[in-house]
C-alpha cells in the first residue's frame, strides 16, 4: 500500500507534470472506483490544473475549481505516460480504473491489482467534502506536529496499542502498516505497548522516529519517476516484510505477528527485550 512518503513523492511528481496543463479527457473504466456523483467527471474536461495537494494518503488535483481526489488503497498505483493511447480504453476486467489524458497527449492511469476493488476516486468542489479527508488526523510532516502534539495524542489514546494508534488515519494521517513497523523499530518500542505507558524518553524516541523515518523515506523518493517508487520503498525497509532475516541493528531474527488480513514485523532484540510476541492468528487456531 502506498503510504505518506510514496504519496508525497507522487504529489511532487504530478505537480511537476500537471501544473498549467489542461485535462483533455477523463475515462472511467472501473465504475466502482467513483465514489461521488454530485459533479460529473466531465466537469474536469477542458480545465487547467493549478494545484496538487496531499491529504494523508489522498492526492487532490485542482482542475478549474473542481477537484479530482483519489486514494490508491492497498493495491492501487499511478502510471504516468508521456504519450497516452489515442483511442479511449474499454471497460473490462483488467487493472485499469481511471485514465486522465492531457492536452499534450501525456497523462496517467490509475490501476488496481487483485480482486478487491478499494481504489477510490472523487470529484468534488472541495476535498473537505470527502468524509475520510475531513476526519483525518494531523499530518506528521506539519510544523504543528511537535512532541507536545504527539504526547497529547498518546494520552488520549489511553491503553490502545502503539501499532494501531500509528495506523489510525483519524489520529495521525498518512502512516500505514509498513512505516508503522519501521517507526516502532527505530524507536525501539513494542507494537503492542499501551500508548499511555510510554516514559518521556520513549515518547521523545517515538517522535523522532516518526519525523526521521518519514523524512528519510521522502528524501529517497521525491524526484524519482512514479514507476520507481515501489522498488525504492521496499529497498528502504529494515523490518517490514523481512521476516526471518537478521536485524541490521542487533542481528536478531526479525519476527512476525499475523492477523486475518495483514501482518506486522518487529525485532525481538531491539523492541521486546528478546521476548516473542504472541501470534494472534495461531492463538485463535489453538483455542
From TrEMBL:
* InterPro entries referenced in this protein's UniProt entry, alphabetically: FPG_cat (IPR012319), FPG_N (IPR035937), H2TH_FPG (IPR015886), Ribosomal_uS13-like_H2TH (IPR010979), Znf_DNA_glyclase/AP_lyase (IPR000214), Znf_FPG/IleRS (IPR010663)
Q: What is the annotated signal peptide range for this record?
A: none
Known cofactor(s): Zn(2+)
Please indicate which superkingdom the organism of origin belongs to.
Bacteria
> Where in the numbering of this chain does the Formamidopyrimidine-DNA glycosylase catalytic domain appear?
2-119
Q: Which SUPFAM superfamilies match?
A: Glucocorticoid receptor-like (DNA-binding domain), N-terminal domain of MutM-like DNA repair proteins, S13-like H2TH domain
A single GO BP annotation from the record? base-excision repair
Name the coiled-coil region(s): none
What Pfam families does the annotation carry?
Fapy_DNA_glyco (PF01149), H2TH (PF06831), zf-FPG_IleRS (PF06827)
The UniProt GO MF terms for this protein read: 8-oxo-7,8-dihydroguanine DNA N-glycosylase activity; damaged DNA binding; DNA-(apurinic or apyrimidinic site) endonuclease activity; lyase activity; zinc ion binding
Q: Which family does it belong to?
A: Belongs to the FPG family.
This protein's name: Formamidopyrimidine-DNA glycosylase
- Biological source species: Micropruina glycogenica
Lineage start: Bacteria, Bacillati, Actinomycetota, Actinomycetes, Propionibacteriales
Amino acid at each position: 500500500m502506498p503510504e505518506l512518503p510514496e504519496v508525497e513523492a507522487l504529489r511532487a511528481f504530478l505537480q511537476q507534470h500537471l501544473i498549467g496543463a489542461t485535462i483533455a479527457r477523463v475515462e472511467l473504466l472501473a465504475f466502482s472506483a467513483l465514489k461521488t456523483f454530485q459533479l460529473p467527471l466531465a466537469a474536469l474536461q477542458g480545465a487547467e490544473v493549478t494545484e496538487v495537494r496531499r491529504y494523508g494518503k489522498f492526492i487532490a488535483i485542482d482542475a478549474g475549481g473542481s477537484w479530482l481526489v483519489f486514494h490508491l488503497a492497498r493495491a492501487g498505483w499511478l502510471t504516468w505516460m508521456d504519450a497516452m493511447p489515442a483511442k479511449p480504453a474499454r471497460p473490462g476486467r483488467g487493472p485499469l480504473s481511471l485514465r486522465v489524458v492531457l492536452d499534450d497527449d501525456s497523462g496517467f492511469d490509475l490501476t488496481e491489482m487483485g480482486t478487491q476493488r478499494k481504489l477510490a476516486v472523487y470529484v468534488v468542489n472541495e476535498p473537505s467534502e470527502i468524509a475520510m479527508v475531513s476526519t483525518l488526523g494531523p499530518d506528521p510532516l506539519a510544523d504543528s506536529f511537535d512532541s507536545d502534539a504527539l504526547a497529547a495524542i498518546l494520552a488520549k489514546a489511553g491503553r490502545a496499542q502503539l501499532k494501531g494508534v500509528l495506523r489510525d488515519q483519524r489520529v495521525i494521517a498518512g502512516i500505514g502498516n509498513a512505516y508503522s513497523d519501521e517507526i516502532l523499530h527505530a524507536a525501539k518500542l513494542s507494537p503492542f505497548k499501551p500508548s499511555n505507558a510510554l516514559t518521556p524518553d520513549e515518547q521523545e524516541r517515538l517522535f523522532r522516529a516518526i519525523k526521521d523515518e518519514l523524512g528519510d523515506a521522502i528524501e529517497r523518493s521525491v524526484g524519482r519517476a512514479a514507476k520507481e517508487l515501489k522498488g525504492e520503498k521496499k529497498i528502504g525497509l529494515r523490518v517490514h516484510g523481512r521476516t526471518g532475516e537478521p536485524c541490521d541493528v542487533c542481528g536478531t531474527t526479525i519476527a512476525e505477528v499475523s492477523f486475518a488480513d495483514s501482518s506486522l514485523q518487529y525485532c525481538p532484540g531491539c523492541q521486546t527485550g528478546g521476548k516473542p510476541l504472541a501470534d494472534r492468528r495461531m492463538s485463535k487456531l489453538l483455542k
